Amino acid sequence: MVESGRSPKSAFSRAGSVDEAEVSNFDRLGADWWRPDGPMRALHKFNPTRVAWLKDVLVGELLPDGGADPDKPLVGLKLLDIGCGGGVLSEALAELGADVTAIDPAPRNIEIAKAHAEKSGLSIDYRCVSVEALAAEETKFDAVLAMEVIEHVRDLRGFMKAAASLARPGGILFAATLNRTLKSYALAIVGAEYILRWVARGTHDWQKFVTPAELTAVLKRSGLDVFDKTGVVYDLFSDRWKVSADMEVNYMLAARRNVVVAG
């Protein structure tokens, strides 16, 4: 949590992965996080697709019996949502029965997320803290999610190292981000920000996009092995997102933390 009497900037000045300019941009969204027709409308459309994929992998890898309750298949799983924003993903996972802890370095985001969860009758442990600070507590989770946040951090290796340390041995780290290709520049920057105006101009920096090979290598150095990956594409005709073999723009990865055998 942000210490009393300290500004957000001073509270996170030691967190090497936190980009203060990025934090300020998202902090200004406020209640607009939950407007389906607002500046985060693309995220609201994308959310069902990523939740469905996450659920399938989590159940298949960590709950092989399929979950006792079909309406809440993630009961028994302790999840961490890094860079939770206003809580769009966190709430969806909590509704599926997961025990969710969600963190974000933007104080206003956490305020909005807490208020919306309370209104929705959901119990989510929201914290205004950096991933490095949480990692120092040595808390472990069955799965750690870094979804649509990697392209906004300042130090990718430091961020992923801290995130990986929060997954228990045998646990899973999920990541979703944007590939650094000419196609992603055309669609995610020119198309989404300037033509379709799905997100505000300047939301993304193409130089911060990460290729699957780069991310896989960083995860490997952090003690994780990628075992599943998929692209995600927008279908203009059906007005929805869907998983795809095409990873040139949006993609998602799942990596397992190695189990260290003593002796």
CATH superfamily: Vaccinia Virus protein VP39
Query: What is the general shape?
Result: globular
Please state how the strands of the largest beta sheet are arranged side by side: 3-2-1-4-5-8-6-7
Q: Find the structural class using helix and strand composition.
A: alpha/beta
Q: Measure the end-to-end span.
A: 38 Å
What is the ordering of alpha helices and beta strands?
HHHEHEHEHEHEHHEEE
Strand content: 15-25%
How many strands appear in the DSSP assignment?
8
Name the quaternary structure.
Answer: single chain
CATH third-level topology: Rossmann fold
Low-confidence parts: 1-14
Looking at the overall shape, the CATH architecture is 3-Layer(aba) Sandwich
- CATH class label: Alpha Beta
User: Approximately how much helix is present in the residues?
Assistant: 25-40%
Number of helices: 9
Task: Detail the topology: elements first, then pairings.
Layout: H1 8-11, H2 20-27, H3 41-62, E1 78-82, H4 88-95, E2 99-103, H5 107-120, E3 125-127, H6 131-135, E4 141-147, H7 156-165, E5 167-178, H8 182-195, H9 212-221, E6 224-235, E7 240-244, E8 250-257
Parallel strand pairs: 1-2, 1-4, 2-3, 4-5
Antiparallel strand pairs: 5-8, 6-7, 6-8
